[in-house]
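B., you asked whether I could sanity-check this one before it goes into the benchmark set. Here's the sequence:
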Amino acid sequence: MYGRCGVDQLNMFLLFTVIVLSVVSVLLSFLGSVFAIVAVVLNLLSYLILLWYLFRFFSRNLEKRIRENRQYLAWVSRIKDRQNRYYRCPNCKQTVRVPRGRGKICIKCPKCSEKFIKKT
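And here's what the prediction gave me:
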């Protein structure tokens, strides 16, 4: 396993998702023939996610896997951040963080000094 990606936060999330989808598909299959098609789709989706998990787990391209994990962690931190809003600068596409609950404010981009108005 030397030189492989192994387990990181994104892989743990993928494995948890596979387990949840598998349990839900088994429970739906017991409910009747109407939910059987949904159970099959969820089961196939869980297999696809499991294949992605295994691909990431055994991958030797560490730079790409680390970049994917960083993007996942940034996404999770944005979801957990309830005190700030994130906007993209219309000029340079830089992400700008502003506090929530201030009404309409004029935001100045720190990179290109473009000013734009958004509601927080």
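One thing to flag: The first strand starts at residue 84 and ends at 88. Otherwise nothing jumped out at me.
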